[in-house]
Amino acid sequence: xxxxxxxxxxxxxxxxxxxxxxxxxxxxxxxxxxxxxxxxxxxxxxxxxxxxxxxxxxxxxxxxxxxxxxxxxxxxxxxxxxxxxxxxxxxxxxxxxxxxxxxxxxxxxxxxxxxxxxxxxxxxxxxxxxxxxxxxxxxxxxxxxxxxxxxxxxxxxxxxxxxxxxxxxxxxxxxxxxxxxxxxxxxxxxxxxxxxxxxxxxxxxxxxxxxxxxxxxxxxxxxxxxxxxxxxxxxxxxxxxxxxxx
Amino acid sequence: xxxxxxxxxxxxxxxxxxxxxxxxxxxxxxxxxxxxxxxxxxxxxxxxxxxxxxxxxxxxxxxxxxxxxxxxxxxxxxxxxxxxxxxxxxxxxxxxxxxxxxxxxxxxxxxxxxxxxxxxxxxxxxxxxxxxxxxxxxxxxxxxxxxxxxxxxxxxxxxxxxxxxxxxxxxxxxxxxxxxxxxxxxxxxxxxxxxxxxxxxxxxxxxxxxxxxxxxxxxxxxxxxxxxxxxxxxxxxxxxxxxxxx
Amino acid sequence: xxxxxxxxxxxxxxxxxxxxxxxxxxxxxxxxxxxxxxxxxxxxxxxxxxxxxxxxxxxxxxxxxxxxxxxxxxxxxxxxxxxxxxxxxxxxxxxxxxxxxxxxxxxxxxxxxxxxxxxxxxxxxxxxxxxxxxxxxxxxxxxxxxxxxxxxxxxxxxxxxxxxxxxxxxxxxxxxxxxxxxxxxxxxxxxxxxxxxxxxxxxxxxxxxxxxxxxxxxxxxxxxxxxxxxxxxxxxxxxxxxxxxx
Lengths: 246, 246, 246
Known about the structure:
The first copy, chain A, has 10 helices and 8 strands. With 246 residues, chain A is α/β, with parallel strands linked by helices. The first copy, chain A, has one domain (2-242): UDP-N-acetylmuramoyl-L-alanine:D-glutamate ligase (3-Layer(aba) Sandwich).
């Protein structure tokens, strides 16, 4: 799938948090996509209308950028630009929950990319989510994801030790990965951005997102055992895959 | 000390600048802590109340985030969550000085982590601080730090060629380090975040912060002589220490 | 030229986007300059008045920071502090165009550092600029740059496969470089910051900026063929040049 992105070179409008903005931009560039970050309410409608996809990531959202996300999301819907929502740490505070629910209420999203704890919050079950990490709780995760997918008519991608993807009917599991990916900030956020790039270039989202999840896990497997160099190795692995070298 | 953090895995609420947010998150993850960045005034009280410690770093503060820092700091005090203040470049502009003095006035901080120039500004002596670098001036630094520690009833950590820590009575010096640490942005900021993680996991802050300062200097000593790779080596060194491999 | 910066150690006030702030700070530190990031309207006038140069980069500008850029730019003019403008993606949205034109209208800039697509937007010709990438169009680029340089009485630096610099009369071309530099975010933004450092330390801007462009291309040539490690190699190459090791 990454080779398709590399050929299509989609422009991905990222409204994301300042912690991972650099890594996200470099990850998108590595697979041949073209990232643009813009969060000013006066320009986001114009920016998204020339983009191939929109990413909404609430990692460091504030009242100003939340408003801009709604404007961008609605404009994306008008223009037929696909939207990926990454509800970072949605269970951590009532404010994050309200921002995410407002987006889900006013914007038709194409993909929800989250971890188990974030899914639990959106699904509405109690969960010990501990900041922006996934945490622990009691939920039939597959059923929850399917129900959320049906409710919001979107594809739900839940990442963790085993990833899975569902459109509310079918479920595909993706195994593999590297524990180091949980020790580097932004690997989930970058995946959400890459899902946006996939949607911009894809004709069969369910199939191609599943392939992308598999490639993403393979890239992390190829990124070694050393925390410090993980990002570098990971960028290299993504680039090689996108350029069809492996 | 870093091994204790690795076991406790504290959630550290970082209100920090966008220059170093990524490095700070990755540094905290390397030692096994769990970083969360959030600066929206509507959510910071909720976020800090589930955190193990709060970091206030004014590196790119603005009127919106300054207000949020006060809200978070006061809530941290209510909840017994320890607070670390990093007064980045406080001497550079009257605005920074006013933000820092307002925090010190309204929030009980546990640790002030600064360089000599920043200490001089808070202590109230003239200093040539040159942006966010330490600069030069004429001050009995130890006496100044002790007086500031007593005045604000906090621990003061002053970093430089030789670090020292004081609670207003005792003073511990920490030698070592690597000059390259001054040529990479965010090493001071990350140390402040790690001090917050220490407070979240510590029973004897003075002792354990001193140990942490020593480990931090050792990590920089193990990070080689090449500027480009310093961050990578440093992350690796921190991880190894936290995991007890050295 | 980079050795001159290394000796002068100018303080560069960077008002830049959050995607590249970290890389910009580390790149400036690598050449021995001292970066400070500050974008709060209440402090930028004070900050710029102690700086050697000011960088205005609109990559993730918003209404708050646009206002602060005008305040900082005007104060820089008052104090004789040179100003570099990087009009990131100016052609992508009417909002970006209005911000840039307002800066050009109210602030005397010393250097405009842009790509061909951004130049086209400022020059006023139609261009397919595709987000923040340069894109394609039909324009006599040299003539456009000369006219813009004359109109705003500034030096124009246009980077691409071949860079060139003009003061409206003379034109110098700079060859070389590494295609990987276009696959890593922030290489253009960092160059703008380094141009600011050059102005702070320079007596002959046209000549010394041209030398700097050449050195920047040489540094990228020395940064290998591997995307992941490009930034590290590039920082090392800049440092070595600034320290006169090559």
